[in-house]
Amino acid sequence: MSERILMKGNEALAEGAVRAGCRFFAGYPITPQNEIPEYMSWRLPETGGTFLQAESEVSAINMLFGAAAVGRRVMTSSSSPGISLKQEGISYCASAELPIFYANIVRGGPGLGNIAPSQGDYFQSTRGGGHGDYRVFVMAPKSVDEMANFPRICYDIAFKYRIPAMVLADGILGQMMEPVTFDFDPVEADSLSIPDWALRGSKPEERRVVKSFDLRPGKMEEWNYRLEKKYDEIKAEEVRYEAINTDGADLILTGYGTSARICETAMAQGRKEGLKIGYIRPITLWPFPTRIFRDLAGKIGKFLVVEMSLGQYVEDVQLSINGRSEIYLHKRPAGGIPTGEEVLEVAKKVLSGDKSKFYV
Amino acid sequence: MKIVFEQTKGLTDIPMRYCPGCGHGVVHRLVAECYEELGVQENTIGVAPVGCSVFADEYLNIDMIQGAHGRGPAIATGIKRNLPDKLAFSYQGDGDLASIGAAETLHAAARSENITIIFINNAIYGMTGGQMAPTTLLGMRSTTSPAGRTVAANGYPIRVCELLAALDGPVYLERTTVDKPAGVVKTRKAIKRAFQYQLEGRGFTLVEILSQCPTDWGMTPLQSLERVRNEMTPYFPLGIYKEPEDDKKARPKKDAVKKES
Ligand SMILES: Cc1ncc(C[n+]2csc(CCOP(=O)(O)OP(=O)(O)O)c2C)c(N)n1
Ligand code: SF4
Looking at this predicted complex, what is its ipTM? Predict the structure, then answer.
């Protein structure tokens, strides 16, 4: 269990899902996530599971819809345009309360964009993504080790609350190699109990129906309140974040995923130079760690948001801080990757009163 | 007292809300009778489409799932690959199967996915109020082809059985009608055969049933039956388009497929 191995991010994610009990994968090729289906195509049959290359992302997510409905631990992965295509199916899963796990290894957009690392799908991931009032559980790893270990957390949450859960990463995290330690015992998929809602064929008096709608007057409203109750519980119970050196800081750097790592580097260098810089990094993007920001708002004068998109993540920070501290934004879209030095430069300017990166 | 006829236990007691004269209700009953007769009712999982039969889960007395428009074959694939011993079928209309879900249909067939599709071809989009379908006949009026379907504007209707028969994947493809008792009997036989092949693990099966939609055709139920006979069957010939070689040979000559053209 505690063995350390060198792995590529995408493969670590796939292996992490298999060890967490995934036994069904359907997907469609797209860069920069191809290592995931490629890995699953030989790894799942080894475990008695099924790998399917679907004819499209639309088909893949609907294969998951069927496979999840029989109680399996299922997975799909894609990159931005492919995730857009899956959104209708994800919305159906959310409404029908089917636990699914998926990963978006984000590339530059909009449109076909490019295959460079990006964080441009933050809104899509954290606001549900498809049609209707729903949310998905979103985790943002910052290392290959977390790529390996987050699938298990996603499955736990997905099955506990019967919601879709996802990992939001980018091409850097997917492609780079780092040492990995799986911090959990492999889940024996066959020993998992079949959930009572799962379809498997039944006596007429016990028959089960999986569906995403109720056309009777008022019923869909009730349905939505039922989903909302779960979301409120998740917001109260399942927030995860990292906060370092926030006590007495003059400036908080904040970002998620790859940006978080860059912030960490900048913070470490800044502190070496005697600057009082702290750092907050959401691990769950939904539910968002609102409270830590709220608690520090007003106490710490300045927050510098770093994101590889044009001002998406910053909106959640803004909502949490609610005007009680100044927010600055350093942004790089579609393949622009800030360096630690670059961020530290900006941080120094912000600390010296420069307003060029002032956001709100 | 001897029971000579009983209502199938394959259906629930919920009264169907299909329009009078609609083909959906008849086919629901045939599907239900078939899984009941084969003794697999408790081991069957059905996929309901988006279309008038979106409510099939209320009527078919089995485990059911209702999914996105056109994606039934993919959903049934996800079910069947994980529960290979269960009978899995997808029930779909023509808009669902041959338009938005054409890719899912074609690829499930090409993979010879061991599922059955019950395909209701009523040449119209019933649920959304009578728009043109991929199977709407040339000259036929719909709310989006008010002057009648033309080749210039809309191209040709799709013949699904013929299209799928060109693939190696499908094991059994048959087109039937429910416009008269003989057709109903044939349809029942076809559905049962398809289910049987699936239970034997043979691969992809599909039964296309030419059906009537009196409401969106703007006809009486009787007129709509006439249209199935006089207008639909000439363009969509009835018959078996694919079947296992051994069964073809075993069948007596008089039953041989006669495609009306
Ligand atoms: C993605 C999506 N597009 C469109 C619709 C609207 N819609 C509902 S049913 C339907 C057509 C149904 O026609 P058909 O499949 O022929 O079945 P019928 O109602 O005739 O039995 C359409 C277009 C939808 N629900 N989802
Ligand atoms: S609209 Fe047509 S297909 Fe739909 S229930 Fe009525 S008759 Fe049947």
Answer: 0.96
